[in-house]
Amino acid sequence: MKKLLALAFLLLPLLLLAGILLKPDGEVSTLENRTLLTRKDLRLSLRGNAFQEDAETYLSDQFPLRAFFKAREAELFLALGAGEFDDLYVGKDKRLFERYPAFDEGFLRKEGAKINRLASEGGVPVTALPVPPAEIPLRKLLPEGAPVYDHAALMKLFREAAGEAKVLDLAPVLTDPGDYYRTDHHWTTGGAYKAYLLWMASREGEFYKLSGEGKADALPEPEAETVSRDFRGTLFSRAPGRNVPPDEIRLPPIPEGVRAEADGKEIPFYDLSALEGSDKYAVFQGGNHGFLRVDNPEGGEGVLLVLRDSFANSLLPFLIREYRTVILIDERYALLDPLEAVRTYGVTEVLWVKKCVP
Amino acid sequence: MVFSSVTFLLAFLPVTLLVCLLMPGARSRNAVLFLLSLVFYAWGEPVYILIMLFSTFFDYGNGRLLERFEKQGKRRAKNAVLILSVTVNLGLLAFFKYTDFLTGSLNGVFSLGIPSLGLRLPVGISFYTFQTLSYTVDVWRGRVKAQQDPVAFGAYVAMFPQLIAGPIVRYADVEKELSERRMSLETVWEGVPRFALGLSKKALIANPLSRYWEEISALSGESTVTALLGVLAFALQLYFDFSGYSDMAIGIGRMLGFHFPENFDHPYEAKSVSEFWRRWHITLGSWFREYLYFPLGGSRKGRARTVRNLLFVWLLTGLWHGAGWNFVLWGLWFFCLIALEKLFLGKLLERLPGIFGHLWTVGTVLLSWVLFQSEDLPAAGRYLLSLFGAHGFMSGVSLFYLRCAGPMLLLAAFFATGIPSRLWKKLVREGARLPFEAAGAFLGLELSLIEVVNSAYNPFLYFRF
User: Fold this and answer.
1) What residues in B contact A83, CB-CB < 8 Å?
2) What are A147-191's pLDDT values in tens digits?
3) Do B189 and A147 touch (CB under 8 A)?
4) Which residues of A touch B441 (CB under 8 A)?
5) What was the ipTM of the complex prediction?
6) Domain total for chain B?
7) Are B240 and B281 contained in the same domain?
8) Residue by residue, what is the 3-state secondary structure of chain B?
9) Residue numbers of the domain that contains B380
10) Across the interface, which of A8, A48, A56 has its CB nearest the CB of B5?
C-alpha cells in the first residue's frame, strides 16, 4: 500500500506537468481579464532570473482549471464575509474597492510641478481634477474601521505643488454609491457627470450649452442609454466570484458630427464591440490612447487639452459638448510636452484629470 | 528554487526523487543528489553558486589534510588547518554579510564616508557555512572520519532539502547515512506526510498571514490592539513559515533515506525563554552550544564566566540572523532574559503555576519580534510605543483587523500548540494511521498547490540567510 501511495505521490505531479505541456497553451483568461504567458513568450536566456521567473509564471498561468480555482476561492471568501481579498476591500453587498493605505508623494509633486509650469508659462487657465479612489468618498461602505490614506493631506500637498493651477476637490462631490462602479476602479457615467458639473461651475466666462441657458448646475443630466447590465471590471478580475453582482454601463449621447482620431487614425467614439468582451470599459473610445483628438463641429470656440488617464474616457462625452476640439494626452503612452501641445494646437484651456493615487 | 513553487512541486521534486530511486547504490545516489542540488541552487543563484562550491571543496580538502596530519602526528599542522578553515569560512560569511553593516556603523560613529559595497547575500551562506564548519571541527576533534569521496561530501553540503533554510545538519548527524542509507518507495512514502504538513503550513497559514504585519507596521499611530494583532500575526507567520520549511526539509530527507534532526517543537508552548530556545530553531541553538558555548566553558566555570559565555553566544546568534543593530539588540534581549532565568527567574517560574511561564515567554518573545522585524530601530521604537498604548487601546482599525485577521490568528494559534498533534496521537493508534495520513497529505498537497498557483510569489522570510 505504501508503495502505491509513494508512486501516486511521485507520478501525479508529473502527470499534471505533462497535462500542462501537452495541451495547447491558453492565451487569455477572460475571467481575470489578462493575457497568459505562453511557451513562445518564455525568455530563454540563462543570464539573470528571466527564464526561472517565466517558467514559474508559465506553469501557473497554464495550470489546468486555474481560473476555476481562483473564482471558487473568491466566492468562498466573499461568502464568508471577508473584509479583504487580494489586496481589495470588500464592502457592503460585496462591493469591491482598491486599497490605498498611503498616497504617492512623488507622483503628486511631479504632476503638480507639471501643471504649475503649464499655468505659469502656457498663458492659458489650467484646472486639475484629481479623482479620489472610491474608498475615500464612499468610506461608509467600506468594512468598518478599514484604514485609508489621509485625503486631506494629499489635497494639501497637491495644491502646494500645483501652485498657479486651480485644483478642485472631488471627494465631497462623488458621495453617491452610484458614482463609482462596484466591480471596477473607474467612476460611472453618473460620477463623471458630477465631475463635469464641478469643473463647469469653476470656470469663468461663457460656455456653449447644448440645452437651455442658465448656470452649470442647472444642466440636466442627459439621457444616457444603458448598454450593458453585465459589466464586471478590473476589480472583479481579482475577485472573480459568481456572487459578485455586476455593474451597468450607461452611454450619454454625443453631438452629431463628433469625430475622434487616435494616433492619426479615425476611431469610433463608442466602440460597441468592446461590450462583447470582458474589458467593457473600453467601449469608451476603445480604451487607452497616447494621443487622441476629438472634434465637434457644433462645439464652442475653444480648444481643450486634457492630461489624462483612463478616467477621462468616460468624462469625454460631456467635455466634447463644450469645445470645437479636445486633445487628450496620456503621458504613460505618449511622449509629448504639454507646453508644446498648447502652442501647436492653439489650446485655450487645460484640464488635468487623473486618479490621485496612480 | 523555492519549495512552494509550481516548478519545484511539479517538476524538480518528483524527477529528482525518481532519478535517485532508480540509482543502484548510495554512491550513485550521492552523485545524482549533488548534481541536482546544484541545479536547484543555481536556479535561483546562478553566480554565487561558485562560492558554495568553493566552500565545499575547500573544506573537503581541509578534512583530508586534517586526517593526514593526524596520522602523521603533526599537531601544529592540524591546528593550522583548522584555523585556516575557520578563518576562511567565517571570513567569507562576514565579508558578504557584514561588510556594509560594519562600514555603515563606522561611518555613523566617525563620519568616515566609506562607500558601501552593496553586495547581495549568497542564498544559504549562513547555513552551509555552519555545516562545513561543523565538519572541519569534528574531523579535527576526531569525532568523525574525513570523507574520502568528494561527491559524497558535496552531496552533504549542497543537499537541496536543507541547503537554503536548514535545519543545520551537522556532518556527524548524517555521516553514516551518506554511505549506508536505503531509499525505496517505502522510505519515500514515509516522508510524504511530513512534507505535506510543511507545505500546508507555508501555503495555507504562513502565506495568508504574511499580509498583516506588512499592513499594520505600515500604519502609524496604531492602537494597542492593532499593534498586538500585527505582532501576533508576525509571530505565527514566522513560525509556520520556518517550521513549515523545516518540515518539508525533514520530509524530503526521509524520502531520500536521511534522518535529519528536528528543528521545532511547538516553541510557543514553552514555559520559559530558555525552554523556548530549546524548541525554536533547535539546530541553530545546538550548533552554538556545541561549537561555541561548550568550548568556552559553558556554565561550568562559575557564574561570571557563564554570563560572559551567554553574552557571546547571544550576540552572535543575533548577528547570525541579520546584519543590523536591531538584530544585535534582539540577541541581547534574549541574553538578558536567559541570564535572568539562569540566575534566579527560572527556578521561580518553575514554582509558579504554568500560566505565568507561558505568559512570560510569549510576552517577551512577541516583544522580541518587534525588534527583529522592524525596518530600523526608530521604527521598532514607534511600534513598541503603539503597543504600550501611546495611541489608545483600541480603534476602528482594531475592529477591522480583529474581524479580518482574528479567525485566521485563532486557527493558527491553535495549530501552533501541540494540542492537535497530541489529539491525533491519542485518537488514532499507530497501526490505523495510514489512511488518514494519506488522505490528509494528499488534501494538503492539493490545496497548497492551488494556493501556490493562485497567489503571487511569496518568498520565505529566512531567505536572507
Assistant:
1) 400, 403-404
2) 999 999 999 999 999 998 999 999 999 999 999 999 999 999 999
3) no
4) 9
5) 0.89
6) 2
7) yes
8) CCCCCHHHHHHHHHHHHHHHHHCCCHHHHHHHHHHHHHHHHHHHCCCCHHHHHHHHHHHHHHHHHHHHHHHCCCHHHHHHHHHHHHHHHHHHHHHHHHHHHHHHHHHHHHCCCCCCCCCCCCCCHHHHHHHHHHHHHHHHHCCCCCCCCHHHHHHHHHCHHHHCCCCCCCHHHHHHHHHHCCCCHHHHHHHHHHHHHHHHHHHHHHHHHHHHHHHHHHCCCCCHHHHHHHHHHHHHHHHHHHHHHHHHHHHHHHHHCCCCCCCCCCHHHCCCHHHHHHHCCHHHHHHHHHHHHHHHCCCCCCHHHHHHHHHHHHHHHHHHHCCCHHHHHHHHHHHHHHHHHHHHHHHHHHHCCHHHHHHHHHHHHHHHHHHHHCCCHHHHHHHHHHHCCCCCCCCHHHHHHHHHHHHHHHHHHHHHCCHHHHHHHHHCCHHHHHHHHHHHHHHHHHHHHHHHHHCCCCCCHHHHC
9) 187-464
10) A56
